[in-house]
Design a protein that fits this description.
This protein is an alpha+beta fold. The protein has an eight-stranded mixed beta sheet with strand order 2-4-3-1-5-6-7-8, sandwiched between helices. The chain has helices spanning 3-32, 37-56, 60-80, 82-94, 102-125, 141-144, 156-163, 202-213, 242-253, 257-263, and strands spanning 130-134, 148-153, 173-177, 180-186, 217-221, 228-232, 235-238, 272-274. The protein has ten helices and eight strands. It is elongated. The N and C termini lie far apart (73 Å). α2 packs antiparallel against α3 (60-80), α5 runs antiparallel to α9 (242-253) and α9 (242-253) packs across α10. The relative contact order is 0.09. The chain folds into two domains: 3-94, no CATH class; 102-274, 3-Layer(aba) Sandwich (YojJ-like (1), CATH 3.40.1700.
């Protein structure tokens, strides 16, 4: 084997090494997204910058302090963020760190939309109040932790039973994460907008509130009127028909870009937008 071959193998090994490091970092970010650990990472980044600046300008005392913070900080991280670390290890054990095929994910999204449509139609006809929030890019793990953990496969029957009046989990929101029912009886932040109609209740305010701080899609069924509303990006769309709801959820939640492009404009003219 020539020296050129050794150089090529070393070059290839370096590329594989970089790709593996990138993959691990990407998966770690995906796991902690939407949790308190994100803020922790920002703090660590600031400390590293301060450490670099103090070393550069010869600020020995400050540099020593930052070094101590980093040294003991990692031990504190392990203690404080035990739930997040445990969840990451559980996902690794179940193989969930590796994404499924795009086709399988699309099928799961379609099943989720169908389950939500069927459950919403059932509850609207019987005036069963409901609040269902669907996580998208912005993580909702902090809100999931306020409720009862379920991690259950989504179905219309499950959603309906969760909101049946006088059952233990009917108050609060159901949060759907990665096409599964992550938790029920979750607390969502209430919108403080002064422009919300006085006739809207707590569910609608919570739906608006979560849409103001995340990019989630949230469905509300009014127990007073049976009407169905959806919130997105701080906007409330009221009195939606079943067909319109299907179009919206399909456009926003099912992967193929062609579906999103075909139906995204319907947000602008279908349903009543609450000012």
């Amino acid at each position: 084997m020539s020296f050129a071959d050794f150089d090529f193998l070393e070059y290839l090994a370096n590329i594989v090494d970089i790709l593996l490091v990138w993959f691990v970092i990407y998966k770690l970010i995906a796991i902690i997204r939407g949790t308190k650990a994100v803020q922790l990472l920002k703090g660590i980044f600031v400390i590293l910058i301060v450490k670099f600046v103090s070393d550069f300008f010869g600020l020995n005392t400050l540099s020593w302090m930052m070094e101590q913070v980093l040294t003991w900080g990692f031990l504190a991280i392990i203690i404080i963020f035990q739930p997040e670390l445990r969840r990451a290890l559980e996902q690794l054990g179940r193989g969930r760190l590796f994404s499924r095929s795009g086709l399988q994910e699309e099928e799961d999204e379609e099943k989720m939309v169908e389950a939500i449509i069927k459950a919403t139609d059932y509850m609207a006809k019987r005036r069963i109040g409901a609040l269902i929030s669907i996580e998208r890019e912005t993580g909702m793990s902090d809100y999931i932790e306020t409720g009862i953990q379920l991690q259950s496969r989504i179905s219309s029957e499950l959603l309906i039973n969760l909101f049946i009046p006088n059952t233990p989990l009917h108050d609060g929101a159901v949060v759907i994460q990665k096409n599964i029912v992550a938790a029920a009886a979750c607390y969502l932040p209430l919108s403080e907008s002064p422009f919300i109609s006085k006739e809207l209740g707590t569910r609608h305010r919570a739906a608006l509130g979560i849409s103001e701080v995340t990019d989630s899609i949230t469905i509300v069924v009014s127990e007073e009127t049976g009407s169905v509303s959806v919130t997105r990006n701080g906007e409330l769309y009221r009195d939606l028909s079943g067909e319109t709801l299907r179009e919206l959820l399909t456009a926003e939640l099912i992967s193929p870009s062609r579906i999103k492009q075909a139906a995204s404009t319907r947000w602008n003219w279908r349903g009543k937008k609450n000012g």
